[in-house]
Amino acid sequence: MSRPDRFRRVAREEADRLEEPVEEAANLARKLGLDPYPVNYWIVDHDEMNQLIAYGGFQTRYPHWRWGMTYDRQRKQDQFGMGKAFEIVNNDDPSHAFLQESNSLADQKAVITHVEAHADFFRNNEWFSRFSGDGDLDAAAMLERHAETIQRYVDDPDIDQEAVERFVDAVTCLEDTIDQHHPIDADRDGEPTEPEDLRERLDEMDLSETVQGAVFDDEWLDELAAAEAAAADLDHPRTDVLGFLREHGTVYDPESKEAVEMESWQKDILDLLRREAYYFAPQKMTKTMNEGWAAYWESLMMGEERFAGRDEFLTYADHQSRVLGSPGLNPYKLGKELWEYVENAENRREVADKLLRVEGITWRNFHDVVDFDEVQDRLEPHPAIDGVSSETLSDLAALPEGDPRVDWETLDRALSDPEAVDVDRYPWKVLTYEGLAERHFSLVKPQYRGFLRRIRREKLEQLSRYMFDDEKYDTVEAAIADVDRTAGWDRMREVRESHNDVTFVDAFLSPEFVESNNYFTYEYTRSTGDFRVASVDPDDVKKKLLLQFTNFGKPTIAVFDDNFGNRGELLLGHRYNGVMLDLDQAQDVLERVHELWGRPVHLMTIRKEYDEHDVEVARRRNREPEPTEVGLRIRYDGESFEEFDLDPDLERRIQAADVDYDTKPDEWLS
């Protein structure tokens, strides 16, 4: 049997084996309140999986060397045991997920539950809708059309193939210089306000020609107008660099060494690749949220809801521990822990809100008079909800008729025909969203049993401030009976709709979270030449994370002037936030920008300089030396680089404020 025939047979067998888990994972996801895109699952071998990873989750992409490089790196990681790809899923409607045929059943189930949560995030997070808008999303077809178009230009005998490849290189080098905070077709930067022409004001003043000519001569007025026009541009930096180059750019012609108008194929390629940059931007902007969301629901479904069978659980637990235990800034771990904190904080707020309405309990005496052990016991799920099995269905049926926690239709079917509903394997089938929320209420889990007790007095005071019915309940028992067990999950879905990684971290990375999860910052020390823990202060941890998430963790560059020095040269500015550019890489990027502008380009940035004597003194005193920040303007004319001191006014314009991460529009913070 040939390899393709063998693989097709193995793939069919694997698809048959996974048919039930795929169907039931989707059913469970919806029972838990998720609303995913429909997902098409495909079985692939390890080589096809590596190709898909290289192509960013799609089967067809435009011709470029980057895909081969990524494929080779992934293949070597797989070959030498440096990292195995379990799944890949793309943002599309329907979503497409690819499962590796060599995975164990436990791994396949973990991937499927993980994918259902990703598909829910794709469908419901508003940053993704900023690309797709109200139209149907068919990303696979879009990328395939782009690939065919660029391949057509490569094959066109009237177009130099190397010119196409060089142009694609230049554009892809700048693929993250878009304004990801606005829809792709929006007027992202607007037009700079034209400064008022002083000549019009002088005409209104009705000055004599003698006075006007003596005081306001034409040369002076021309210089003033030029200066004010330049200042107007500098006050309106345009962050969508690719969009700006598409509208105003020319290209550099190596033969004539001059700027020439872009060819139609170049404009077309720039449009296509810019559109792809916008498609992938939400995934980069929400990496931690999205992976954490998927890890959270995967864990709940596979472990707590026993979607992993008894003979599969240890394999699954090992799989997840390796994913969550990966070193460095791990988006799965950080994201999952933040989502758990959102859930716990909202559940705690709900319980505290009810307790503060008990006669005799106030925010001042809360920690003294509340019996937290009693509260914990009363928050435990009802035994019939917690212990669903084929042997306990009668206990579930004994609950009051119409109890919102019970799926009465499915329960009736299970009681009348036990073989119709496998309750022992899928106990969630006889429960509703409300029932599952009680069954998995976070504050009764062993790892969070002290979370309610740790609520701070200022939080209690905030809850009490606008509370009018503060003696609504006579007893703690009555108050706990009124607790909404869905509060945490409801809040998580609200947050999922509107946040990106930066706003998510900014809103929920609290001092309590940092301290309880032992987060800290580290940095390279110039005095010792190694890395060390720099701070455990929650504000420092948050700032460091925000800097890593801002603009995909890459420097933010904006167009400040397209006629710098009145010579048609392009002035770019690095929005300096305390992190210095890699100047070698910056020069490489300037070379690419020059190809798309056609004339000299400038980059404003700030460099940190260290005095060797200060470094030596700092080393002896075991501290970090203080750098001097020096404004710098780098100019590239197509052949060589020059460095200039940066004008103080320009240096001020590129400085970012302490909390100006350029990513926190208030309307997105819910």
TrEMBL record:
SpoVR protein-like N-terminal domain span: 15-351
Parts of the chain that traverse the membrane: none
Domain SpoVR-like C-terminal: 555-606
Name of the protein this chain belongs to: SpoVR family protein
Natural source organism: Halobellus rubicundus
Lineage: Archaea, Methanobacteriati, Methanobacteriota, Stenosarchaea group, Halobacteria
